[in-house]
Amino acid sequence: MSSVELNHANLLSSDSQRTQYPYVTGTSVVALKYKDGILMASDMGGSYGSTLRYKSVERIKPIGKHSLLGASGEISDFQELMRTLDELVLYDNMWDDGNSLGPKEVHNYLTRVMYNRRNKFNPLWNSLVLGGVKNGQKYLGTVSMIGVHFEDNHVATGFGNHLARPILREEWHENLSFEDGVKILEKCMRVLLYRDRSAINKLQIAKITDEGVTISQPYSLKTFWGFSAFLNPTAGAEGSW
């Protein structure tokens, strides 16, 4: 095997290794529609394996004029996606035709990118939430690391898909005010903090309306750890010590 072929084989091998073993990951993103737009929440933890190594990772970013993107999973893959999307938005702006990419177009683009990488057996290790408002139309969707995608009135990734969605199904309605929407998201994030080992009590909530994007400063939730189930979590478990 020539040196060129050997280098190529090594590159393919390293791609495979990076794909199979994500390093620094973020946990759940939760989002919902409210009467004026979209609300999205995530914490700011970055886990190095099972160690909560980073405490100030921003996982919600604006995309162009009309969209907001949140990501779970590998942080470096999210950064690569952001680089790709920045190029896409810049290219769109260079046409200078008065039009701009809306959330539906960005969501469709992300779906094709994720599915394309999946077909190369080198997926981007992320679950994404894309929300936005354009011309008064609210849009909220999600796409997985293998390109599975859908739209809904509320979505969640990671552990949130199991623990936050029941809360959202029960409490969400079309005419949610901003304040009520934030309360629901905080309730979801509090439940995730209690139950998800990768979650931390430092979060951001972002909103997007026709007026633009606002991302809150990081803040923490009030919590209570005196529940009896927390004092002895293995009580009653079969085979517990």
From TrEMBL:
GO biological process terms, semicolon-separated: proteolysis involved in protein catabolic process
Pfam families cross-referenced by the UniProt entry: Proteasome
Alphabetized PROSITE patterns for the sequence: PROTEASOME_BETA_1, PROTEASOME_BETA_2
Annotated InterPro entries: Ntn_hydrolases_N, Proteasome_alpha, Proteasome_beta4, Proteasome_bsu_CS, Proteasome_sua/b, Proteasome_suB-type
GO cellular component: cytoplasm; nucleus; proteasome core complex, beta-subunit complex
Keywords of the record: Cytoplasm, Nucleus, Proteasome
Keyword Cytoplasm: yes
Residue ranges crossing the lipid bilayer per the database entry: none
Record's subcellular location: Cytoplasm; Nucleus
Alphabetical list of CDD domains matching this protein: proteasome_beta_type_4
Family classification: Belongs to the peptidase T1B family.
Subunit structure: Component of the 20S core complex of the 26S proteasome. The 26S proteasome is composed of a core protease (CP), known as the 20S proteasome, capped at one or both ends by the 19S regulatory particle (RP/PA700). The 20S proteasome core is composed of 28 subunits that are arranged in four stacked rings, resulting in a barrel-shaped structure. The two end rings are each formed by seven alpha subunits, and the two central rings are each formed by seven beta subunits. The catalytic chamber with the active sites is on the inside of the barrel.
PANTHER family, sorted: PROTEASOME SUBUNIT ALPHA/BETA
Its biological purpose: Non-catalytic component of the proteasome.
Protein name from the UniProt record: Proteasome subunit beta
